[in-house]
Amino acid sequence: MSSADKNLSVFATSELPDVSHRRFAILVAEWNTEVTEALYKGAYQTLLQYGAKAENIVRGNVPGSYELTLGAQWFALRDDIDAVIALGCVIQGETKHNDYINHAVAQGLTTVSLKTSKPVIFGVLTPNDQQQALDRAGGKHGNKGDEAAITAIKMLGLQKQVYTKF
Ligand SMILES: Nc1c(NC[C@H](O)[C@H](O)[C@H](O)CO)[nH]c(=O)[nH]c1=O
Ligand SMILES: CC(=O)[C@@H](O)COP(=O)(O)O
């Protein structure tokens, strides 16, 4: 289902776990900051709305989305971080540069998540233009930052369920 068919900020909030004790890192890429700051605001406020505490949320900035992978690894390897949310916006340009970045970031964040066994959430917009980005950062299609925060919370709930033995 594409974003055009759903609002990214409409999600099931039933049965969300208690995350008042959980610690989150939010990484923000510094390219397209009008968009990435809106994503960060959405993610941060959503974490607070659903029970996370401000003192348990740390923010880190990276130069561009390509650097989200190493930033995510640094945070995920900390024993006092439970989940990482990576936020960026890679707008298609004249060349294939965006393709290389997007694939590297998607694969890199997945690798970090699997290596650390921690949720590392892909909150990176890959739009064709600025308007598509704005539409997904608090515009008509909602906010992928909200979605990324909910995804982190849900994955921590699954993690607790899986590791709660019979
Ligand atoms: N064009 C965009 C970039 N480019 C920069 C790269 O992410 C990276 O920082 C650089 O290649 C050095 O390693 N980054 C974005 O986040 N968004 C873009 O649209
Ligand atoms: C995704 C990018 O780095 C992009 O801004 C580069 O633009 P271009 O492909 O026109 O050089």
UniProtKB/TrEMBL annotation:
List of residues binding (2S)-2-hydroxy-3-oxobutyl phosphate: 94-95, 136
Keyword Secreted on entry: no
InterPro entries, per database record: LS, LS/RS, LS/RS_sf
Record: active site: 97
E.C. code: 2.5.1.78
Catalysis: reaction(s): (2S)-2-hydroxy-3-oxobutyl phosphate + 5-amino-6-(D-ribitylamino)uracil = 6,7-dimethyl-8-(1-D-ribityl)lumazine + phosphate + 2 H2O + H(+)
Keywords noted in UniProt: Riboflavin biosynthesis, Transferase
Coiled-coil zones: none
PANTHER family attached to this UniProt entry: 6,7-DIMETHYL-8-RIBITYLLUMAZINE SYNTHASE (PTHR21058:SF0), 6,7-DIMETHYL-8-RIBITYLLUMAZINE SYNTHASE DMRL SYNTHASE LUMAZINE SYNTHASE (PTHR21058)
Function: Catalyzes the formation of 6,7-dimethyl-8-ribityllumazine by condensation of 5-amino-6-(D-ribitylamino)uracil with 3,4-dihydroxy-2-butanone 4-phosphate. This is the penultimate step in the biosynthesis of riboflavin.
Protein name: 6,7-dimethyl-8-ribityllumazine synthase
Source species of the chain: Spirosoma sordidisoli
Taxonomic placement: Bacteria, Pseudomonadati, Bacteroidota, Cytophagia, Cytophagales
